[in-house]
Amino acid sequence: MVSCDLTFEVEEPADLALQAAAANGRVVRAERLDVTAGGKALPRPAELAAPHRGRVHLLRAPRGVLSVSYRAELGAPPEPADQPAVASSHDAPGVAGLPGLEQLTYLRASRYCPSDQVIGFAVAEFGDLPPGRPQMEAITQWIHRRVGYVPGSSNVHNSAEDTLLTGQGVCRDFAHLGIMLCRALRIPARFVAVYAPGLTPMDFHAVFEAWSDGAWWTYDATRRAPRQGMVRIATGRDATDTAFLNVLRGIIALRSIEVTATVTGPLPLDDDLTPRRLC
Q1: pLDDT at position 88, please?
Q2: Does 86 reside within a domain?
Q3: Do 27 and 112 sit in the same domain of this protein?
């Protein structure tokens, strides 16, 4: 079961893009998305397909208090759907089989992951390891040891370079740093927003995926929730592509947010070393 309840003050009529629904790929036993403005129900938002089975909901909000409530009861995750493509002799180490467009997208530096600025550092720290998963796992362990999880220590302007310099951040900063270091080693990596049962305090969570051996592998250097229970919401180059809300027009302010994520039965145990994949 996953849910989120969001409340906004709409100062000027606004067009919004919401990314809070669980991505396609899980069995949905029940799902509901309710939007109200001034206590009155608005029509169900239009749904757009986003990359990697994500879903974006578009809504138009009048002035006043806007409330968004999302709930979903999901079945157990199936086997992950990512399939390797035909390998090319021109692929860089660690990216064999990746479709060309994805290879370009997730190898490139991005707004929050300026990988082109830290190639020397990444090679010095991790370049002696075998390419692929050994480097990915070493990066994750290095971040966990070297970076402190400090709520409120960063903001929307902080990049992975800032996290590397300050040595502190929150889940999105940990994910951005992992992505930046992987890309600096020519390993495709991408940002994933998730619901994370077991997370304390509960909120939206962020992890990263890196490509090796024909599959995307999930890493969470915060180690604050078991990866087996996570539910994918949105996937992209960095947090720019996965924000739970984008304001397309108008002026709004977030007033409250409440997120829940639970599993049926005991919470899975994650040794943080076993390779994991999200569906």
Answers
A1: 37
A2: no
A3: no
